[in-house]
Amino acid sequence: MSTLFISDLHLDSSRPQVTQAFYRFLDERTDNTEALYILGDFFEAWIGDDDDAELCLEVKARLKSLSQQTQVYIMHGNRDFLYGPKFCQDTGATLLNDPCLIDLYGIPTLLMHGDSLCTDDQEYMAFRQQARSPQWQQQLLSQPLIARRALAAQLRQQSKSMSALKAEDIMDVNASEVASQLNTHNCHRLIHGHTHRPARHKLAELNAERIVLGDWHDKAWCIEATEQDLKLQHWQIAP
After folding, report:
1. Using CB atoms within 10 A as the burial measure, which of 58, 120, 135, 235 is most buried?
2. CATH topology for the 2-236 domain
3. Considering the entire predicted model, what is its pTM?
């Protein structure tokens, strides 16, 4: 048996090849899997559990089918922080806190989306605090779907424009914040996504490891963990 971790698929109707790659992943990789963890930014944008777009309904149905045989866990990302109880009901998934500490085959492992580690990006951190406010979210969800779709498109465009102007290191994790999270949770392994910089980082001074999942663009990325091993894997997505 194995446990799988994915992140940053950014599912969107404009990128059907990624959606199809995800479906193939479910068909080919989950037969012997006891749990699938989705660590945020599963969708390019999630505008509410009442979204009736074809892609949303189709993906939820696939997750619901998977949940009949495999535990499915999902975490909010910076693009899909509006998952609520209905999403969990429709998919059979369990919503995780961020951060979340799990026992992964006897090894305490901290799971995060990763955006909260990027503390050098003060502009984004201010937006994150606002977007996670229950009052802000309630006000957003009270708007009709058409208005939420327009706002999501506007925010995506703003995010792209802002990212293009920022230094690369500002958008990466802050080493002190990584150390703080590991020390707070008394563990020596961290798995996260968000930065789109897949790698395994040995943190010698902490006797720890930070493993970063990649985004699904031209390649698909996952972590496969078993009792014997943990592997960061990738494969090409068909055009």
Report:
1. 120
2. Purple Acid Phosphatase; chain A, domain 2 (3.60.21)
3. 0.95
